[in-house]
Design a protein that fits this description.
- The complex is a heterodimer.
- Chain A has 5 helices and 8 strands; from the N terminus they run αββββαβαβαββα.
- By secondary structure, chain A is an alpha+beta fold.
- Chain A has 2 domains: 31 residues; 157 residues, 3-Layer(aba) Sandwich (Glutaredoxin).
- In chain A, strands 1-8-7-4-5-6-2-3 form an 8-stranded mixed sheet, with helices on both faces.
- In chain A, strand 2 and strand 3 form a beta hairpin.
- The longest helix of chain A is centred in the N-terminal third of the chain and has 30 residues.
- Chain A is elongated, with a radius of gyration of 22 Å.
- By secondary structure, chain B is an all-alpha fold.
- Chain B folds into 2 domains: 157 residues, no CATH class; 138 residues.
- Chain B is built from 9 helices and no strands.
- The longest helix of chain B has 33 residues.
- Classes of the chains: A alpha+beta, B mainly alpha.
- At the A-B interface, helix 1, strand 8 and helix 5 of A face helix 1, helix 2 and helix 9 of B.
Chain lengths: 195, 302
Amino acid sequence: MKMKIIIPAALGLLILFSTALWVIQKAGQERGRLPLLYELPSFEFTTADSQKFGLNQLSGKISLFDFIYTSCPGPCPRMSATMAVLYEQFSDAAQVQFVSVSVDPGRDSLSVLRRYRRQYGVIDQRWFFLQAPIEAVIRLYEEGFHLGGFLPVEHSTKFILVDDRGRIRGYYDSTDAMSMNILRTHIVELIRMMK
Amino acid sequence: MQAYRRSVLISTILTYVLIFIGGLVRVSGAGLGCPDWPKCFGRWIPPTSLDQLPVGMDPALFNITLAWIEYFNRLAGVLIGLSILITAILAVRFLRHDRSLLRGSIAALLLVVFQGWQGSRVVSSVLEPVVVTLHLFLALILVSILLFLTHRVYHLNKPRSAREDLPRRLTRILFAVTLVQTVFGTQIRSELEMLARNFPLLNDFERLARLGPANNWHIIIGLGITLLVIWIAIQIWLKLPGFRSLAGMMTGLIILLTLSQILIGILLLQNGLPAMLQVSHTWLASLMLGAALLLNLEYSYL
């Protein structure tokens, strides 16, 4: 009687635990797997501090891009606020930088971008605000980042993760908490892969 | 009767398996594997490739492994729901004379349905710690009801004693404290997850070092439980020496589980929380809860 219970129970436990081990390992691999999506073309933009910013500034860094304009009513302040949270959370990671590209260069002069930057408490060289003629912005937006919508008003609310060799690794919906969780995991994973 | 016995026993075992699977979902980070509920990415069978995703669903959320882990939890939940439904139907048909069996079976059915719905809140709250803890808490209550029913249906014709002596009170306290301790444990895990969210650069050891007082309380309560278990073992084995009786066996099991939990707890702290140990820690806690309940019930028939 006792053996009739003990053997199936022990067998059941063995199957349960070994399956669990396999599942945990598999999930760990999957969580950190980042696709290689597109390679960014070369571009040359200007930062709010009048520095040149292009592909060279991406090498050796993990960059998180978004597209905004400072006079935008709804989504941009929310996007920048979300980005400011990430900027704070990754403040100890010098290899992570944040890049906000203005999609309304006509109105967003460098001084306007500097004022906007101050609002979000940017105090160091980890968050750049970029400006370029609208044609160059559209080219980077559509051909480089493969995003759509009429600029500036229909710009995407996605955050785009770019690795240390200028390759796009993921698009994340900045309005969705689940996506932001995944983004954090992916940034940490990229940091680990760079080491 | 025989059918009811089989049905309630299977429900209990399956619920224990599901508690294990639930823990696995959590540690493998698959809780949001399906961002919608009850379907997974708008489908009854989770998608296997990106082009099966419905329009407007963010492809960044999709990971086939995590989706299937989460969905398996839901499928197993449905299976248990059906198993408990059968149990309740059998109780209504054949065991109406036994009030506690009838009420317990229906309570289990209501609870499992509620638990399924509460699972949808876990997803929609984006794994809000309180909601996740409640999900485990309800599962523990459910499995306790099922264990009560299982024990009861094997003791139908035996009279229950009304005496309130020390072992009976002690085992009741053990059940309650184990429940509290388990909830405390999930609280610690919530804290660790919040730390991971707010300080993504910390490694596991650095996160452990930043834990609040909940961790110390967990250790203190754990020591308390150990003393309580020793006291109970002395009381029970004075009356019923050895492992022959169910009460004696449960006492042995409780001691074994307590020692294992202490060991796993130490290993968790020393090794930076390996996922497998986390699942085991939670699951053994649920077994401990069940063993304490069975001991208490068994003692009431002695």
